[in-house]
Amino acid sequence: GQQLQEKSFNYLCEAELEQVSWQLARHSRNVAGFIERLQEYSSYFDYIRALNGNIVRTKACQKLFTNGLGALLFVALPPSGLKSITLAQKHRQLMDEWFRRVKSSGLNIQVRCGFGWKQTVARVYESSQLNQVDSPSYLRISVGLEPVEIIGYLAKELGCAALSIS
Fold first, then answer.
1. Phi, psi of 15 (to 5 degrees)
2. 142 with 72: CB under 8 angstroms?
């Protein structure tokens, strides 16, 4: 499912199927790089988690997906210190500020559901008609296949966005 998300209504060619393990390894490498770069700003977050729940700083994530992190990254702001806004509103504020900062450099992050996208996308999860009533609020990032320099830049800008809204 992860690699078919973007192609769900299109024909899959043999070459795309042959590249699945490469894409999964690239997603895992990029999630690890994103987390590593975001560590500088970790005091502004309640948590930063990958699918396996661990922060991986080894090259093992560059192998097959079974040893990797997947494409998803979950970050949440601390629930304390909220005055007149909800945690979900604070996460939307974080996402908006992050998108604004990144856009000023000519890059673009889209709000999208799903995962396994070629470019990094994000979405705020919260209690709503789409989610369960008592669901927690957090920012879900599907880290794309961009070069490591861009992944590092995106992570830095997310950290700077968290700093600027704190």
1. -60, -40
2. yes
**Residue appearing with tokens 């990094």:** 120
Global confidence as pTM? 0.79
Model pLDDT for residues 77-127, shown as the tens digit of each residue: 988 777 778 888 999 999 999 999 999 999 989 887 766 778 999 999 887
8 A C-beta contact, residue 162 and residue 101: no
Q: For residues 95 and 126, is the Cβ–Cβ distance under 8 A?
A: no
